[in-house]
């Protein structure tokens, strides 16, 4: 089974439309689907093809309308990323974040992503970036979808969602074995760099439980910078 990305909504945007917007931003069509079964229920997933300099793979986006906490445990355990849409003018959504964070942690979901049309700058008007991050710490990225214009060269909107998908290390990552356009020496160097990165991530996951909070955050930041640098190399 392809890595599963669960897409749900606590706002005006419906999960099916979010999935289609993600596919469109990635240049994929919405007609490549497959069914997966968990328990007595069957769900439709949409294939999303990802390709970077170092790997290419296909993930499965599963739109779901309903309370995700009531989903079968085997389905949540199979989920590698959780994407949740929310309305920033709904201040009560912040109260749901601890439960979502627990769901991510308890099911070993690699990353959560919170999507909204546009955040507020004033806490009196609605939810702000700082207020959301204070509640979900590092378990969720927060992305505004108000536009797809680049901000200081960085992708925003659904383009930023695609970058998050590409920067994640999926369980079915495949490093291209050969490339006639890449000299043997360069290919060997790239593969070695990728393998070293995977080793660093595995080591971090193994030893992070024994670290102090500040040390863990510092090491995680260094690891993230290394990964982004590799993904953006020409």
Structure report:
The protein has 234 residues and is α/β, with parallel strands linked by helices. The chain folds into two domains: 4-167, 3-Layer(aba) Sandwich (Rossmann fold); 184-232. It contains seven helices and seven strands; from the N terminus they run E-H-E-E-E-H-E-H-E-H-E-H-H-H. It has helices at 15-25, 73-78, 97-106, 129-136, 157-167, 184-207, 213-232, and strands spanning 4-9, 33-38, 41-51, 56-63, 79-85, 111-116, 140-144. It has a seven-stranded mixed beta sheet with strand order 2-3-4-1-5-6-7, with helices on both faces. Helix 4 (129-136) links the parallel strand 6 and strand 7 (140-144). Helix 6 packs antiparallel against helix 7 (213-232). The longest helix has 24 residues, at 184-207. It is globular and about 55 Å long. The chain starts with a strand and ends with a helix. The model has no long low-confidence stretch (mean pLDDT 82). This is Alpha-and gamma-adaptin-binding protein p34.
